[in-house]
Design a protein that fits this description.
The relative contact order is 0.11. Strand 3 and strand 4 form a beta hairpin. The protein has 2 domains: 61 residues, Orthogonal Bundle (Arc Repressor Mutant, subunit A); 80 residues, Glutaredoxin (3-Layer(aba) Sandwich). The protein contains 7 helices and 4 strands. By secondary structure, it is α+β, with helices and mostly antiparallel strands. Strands 2-1-3-4 form a 4-stranded mixed β-sheet, covered by helices on one side. It binds FE2/S2 (inorganic) cluster.
Length: 165
């Protein structure tokens, strides 16, 4: 199921783990990346096979961690922190502003598939709160104006370009 390039990474990874089940988390990361940012039952089963564990075990581990997703994210996945330090400087208002602008609630994706929002616990950027992660890039010291600007830029970014918010 993995592309030939990713399969090479999988093989290298498995060769470093004499006990296959210990490779579960890195394999889930690779699987999610390979499947456009989310895991479905086919990938859960495939990872289970590779790790020689049951699909139920893989599901149990994957659902414990917030970084694994079980629905397709938008092209731009906005992960907004509303944990206490961010909360004290406007994290919830930032989330509300995003929800209002995009017309969706956290946990959902816009109809055009461009944006999805997820509410997060601390993302490790407390010194630059309020903060969020857009795909894999941090965007910090957020304000409603900064959000508006960012959404405009992302919405007009040609599809083939990478995100660097
Ligand atoms: S509480 Fe928001 S980044 Fe830590």
């Amino acid at each position: 199921m993995f592309s030939p390039e990713t399969q090479q990474q999988v093989d290298r990874l498995l060769s470093r783990y004499p006990i296959r089940r210990n490779a579960l988390l890195p394999l889930l990361h690779l699987a999610q990346k390979e499947n456009q940012g989310w895991l479905d039952s086919r990938w859960v089963n495939h990872v289970a096979e590779l790790c020689e564990v049951s699909p139920t075990h893989v599901e149990g581990v994957a659902t414990f961690y917030t970084m694994f997703r079980f629905r397709p994210p938008g092209k731009y996945h906005l992960q907004v922190c509303t944990c206490v330090p961010c909360c004290l400087v406007g994290g919830p208002e930032i989330l509300e502003h995003l929800e209002h602008k995009l017309g969706i609630h956290a946990g959902h994706t816009t109809k055009d598939g461009l944006f999805s929002i997820e509410e997060m616990e601390c993302i490790g950027a407390c010194s630059y709160a309020p903060a969020m992660i857009v795909n894999e890039d941090y965007v910090e010291q957020l304000t409603p104006e900064k959000i508006d600007q960012l959404l405009d830029t992302l919405a007009t970014t040609p599809q083939e370009q990478e995100t660097h918010a």
